[in-house]
Amino acid sequence: MKNSSVFRFSFAYFQLRLLLFLFFALVLESGLICEARDAAEISWRTGTEFRQSLTGEIGLTWESVPISKILPLLEKQTQIAIWTDRRIDKNLPVTFSAQQTTIPSFLKDITRQTAQKPTEFLNLHSANLELSRTDSFLYVGPKPFVNHLRTLLEIKKDELKKSLSPVDQKKWLKEKVISWDRLTEPRMILTELAEERGLEIRGLKNIPHDLWPARSLPPISALELSLLILGQFDLTLEFSSSEALIIPLNLKSVVLTKSYPLRQVSSRKRGLIEKEAPETRFAEKGSQTLVRGILEVHEFLSSGAMAEKGFSIGGFPSIPPNHAASRTSPASDLNLQRLSGKIQGPFLPFVSQLCQQKGLKLIMDETSFHEKGIDLRQNILLEVENATVEETFRKMAEEIGIQAKIEGENLILTP
Q: Is the Cβ–Cβ distance between 321 and 101 less than 8 Å?
């Protein structure tokens, strides 16, 4: 049995690992090795072993190394599968150093770093990442999708059980090791998945053409794999008694509603939830509190855990301070950040996303803009180079004839 709870590497041993990495990186660059890993050789950690491994300590040092090279080697080293969303720029460089950290802490640090890349802020998917987990692997992707990932899997599992016969349910829920070759179309993965299980998935033509790198995953169900593939195209499955239909994914509807005794939803717990999942809704009805939110909210409220233990999204315990990388307030170092690139699209959605990435609260009076005939959703087109965050907001605002300024951790828009 592998030691699944603790990974410890001496500094000298890690230096050897780093040298091996540099060797493989050079070979990859020269084209002598087609893949950074032979996925079939990895004996993935799953179930309890996988969950215990997430708290194991490792030592890592990377200096401006692309994500595409770090993660395959990390998978081989830890036997923990890490799936990165197709919408992520795999060439984003990562710098990280810690002698005692965990895999989730390391990946969380990557998501924070990408939000501060000076030339990547225009790629909203790459600059606003989050980490979640399933029962067998970690998933890094755009924050809105990843924050709803576990909830989506839970909802669709219940929908499947209500719609299909026990025999068909087993076909969707039976887990199997999955892999595919380089330049495989995701549409073909789903097609083969359905054919192998005698299932019917309608609407496959709605999946855009795309070519994926080689990938291997631990045992995974047809349901989970289908939802993960489709989610990367903002699509999902809808089940009925006779078929599974591909439809657009509306993340606002991916929530669970449950009721709790008033005493179970303490002000402390509610405050922690509202900080991490502000879209959660609470409503008191008699002796009960009705809570509408993602799966993690309900797990936190149902576990009986003390509020002091914290609340986090993604299916992880709150990361202890000694494991977390040092961090500052998202808005505290804005003057040091520089942004470059072309901005094209509707003004308000773009501003809202950038505020979220930079830890800013958007302050404005929409009525005053409406009275002056200003459309906050009109398209803008401009280019910035080595601009501060505030300069970028100001130039964007000038495009529609308004003003923008940063005060503390607030971005204030005025006509």
A: no
